[in-house]
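Weekly sync, protein design subgroup
Attendees: M.S., D.O., the rotation student, P.L. (late)

Item 1: inverse folding check
M.S. brought a backbone from last month's batch and wanted to see whether the design step gives back something sensible before we order anything. D.O. pointed out we never logged the input encoding, so this time it goes straight into the notes. Structure tokens as presented (253 positions):
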């Protein structure tokens, strides 16, 4: 018969994994059945079993529920590190869409689970492609390592996690603006050029002529900026495993 302590440790580890998966791309979307998420979380908990250690058996059902809630919160805080990648890509796509002059269409955006423009969907799948090119293994290894730093069912509040979350959340705007910077600069130059033409040739319909010019210049420099966007994306993905551990809202006693 299995040891009750081992079952509780496995259950707590599964809750931490479930919290992580709730904020992972695809796995956290509405289209993924809840049972699939739970099954994957428990499968990861089985892989992490050798690292769980001994877990104290709670005296009451309420204590067990509280421990499960803590583990779920820890998993959610770790998953936030992955979600920051796609929030940044969504912000960058919004800036680029506005600068190029494209109106967002009602196309479904998987990163937000709602309508979004085609560019946001494209950047979302680019982010998934880069993440699944090997970085997801590092995220899973960091998740398993978290049980060494913070065994299931124990821990106290970690104020450094909140500081790290707030600090790196600010990078959403910085990196998003850097991704969109070439398009912003091109849009400024195009507007400046047509403003000059409007002064030189007053009868010219500057507004109608500037729209196709903005779109053409925007798409051209967007194609040229894919490498730059990919570089920032790779940098964010490479630091994600470290951030998953730094974002843990609890720490070992």
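Designed sequence read out in the meeting:
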């Amino acid at each position: 018969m299995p040891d009750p302590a081992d079952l509780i440790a496995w259950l707590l580890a599964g809750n931490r994994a479930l919290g992580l998966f709730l904020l992972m791309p695809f796995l956290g979307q509405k289209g993924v059945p809840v049972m699939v998420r739970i099954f994957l979380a428990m499968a990861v908990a089985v892989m992490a079993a050798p690292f769980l250690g001994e877990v104290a058996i709670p005296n009451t059902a309420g204590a067990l529920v509280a421990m499960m809630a803590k583990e779920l919160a820890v998993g959610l805080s770790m998953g936030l590190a992955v979600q920051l990648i796609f929030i940044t890509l969504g912000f960058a796509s919004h800036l680029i869409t506005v600068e190029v002059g494209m109106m967002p269409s009602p196309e479904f955006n998987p990163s937000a689970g709602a309508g979004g423009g085609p560019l946001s969907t494209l950047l979302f799948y680019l982010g998934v492609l880069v993440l699944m090119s090997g970085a997801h293994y590092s995220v899973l290894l960091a998740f398993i390592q978290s049980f060494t730093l913070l065994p299931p069912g124990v821990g106290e509040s970690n104020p450094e996690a909140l500081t790290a979350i707030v600090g790196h959340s600010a990078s959403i705007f910085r990196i998003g603006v850097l991704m969109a910077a070439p398009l912003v600069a091109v849009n400024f130059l195009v507007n400046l050029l047509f403003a000059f033409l409007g002064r030189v040739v007053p009868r010219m319909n500057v507004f109608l002529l500037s729209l196709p010019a903005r779109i053409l210049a925007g798409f051209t420099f967007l194609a040229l900026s894919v490498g730059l966007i990919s570089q920032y994306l790779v940098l964010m993905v490479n630091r994600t495993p470290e951030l998953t551990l730094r974002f843990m809202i609890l720490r070992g006693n």
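Discussion: The first strand starts at residue 107 and ends at 109. The CA atoms of residues 21 and 156 lie 23 Å apart.
Action: P.L. to compare against the previous round before Friday.
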